[in-house]
Amino acid sequence: TRYWRDWSSDVCSSDPWAAAVILSAGLLITNPGAAAEPNLLKNPGFEDAASGADAPPNWATGADSMGKAVLTDKAAHAGQHGLAIPAQSTVEQKVGAAAPGAYVARCWVKSEAEQPVTLLLQDPDRPWAVYTCSEIKVPRDQWVQLEAICALDRNGSLTLTLGGMSKGFRF
Question: What integer pLDDT is reported at residue 166 of this predicted model?
Fold first, then answer.
């Protein structure tokens, strides 16, 4: 199982949770050139929970995901909650307005199985012109920090996606 609390899996399994990731800690998008700007992500630590909902507000499971990401208190990196992302699934959040500049996204991930995890930060209006993709093979049962830096040359939006990307997406 992958655990996320700050911010997918390419492992095939008959149990869709066998290779889930838990995301934990502080997801963060900032403009490093500015002085102490607030985090542009909403609910970056997954601490805000909607009543009766499995997924935290402001986060969506990717449309082509094999399973649904759910809020968990099983293995948070910091705070009380994390986000469990099933194998071959992603979560994302869109930031509607971002000024020109460099943006950094960071998250902590932990997996019950060794597997690759991808962090993608991009301008959805120019996905192949403005993006950064960071992929790392997460060792079993160890917290690992992922980081991606993306520079916008003009006003735009950003989408942060985390999880197991399809083999067709990989270079």
Answer: 53
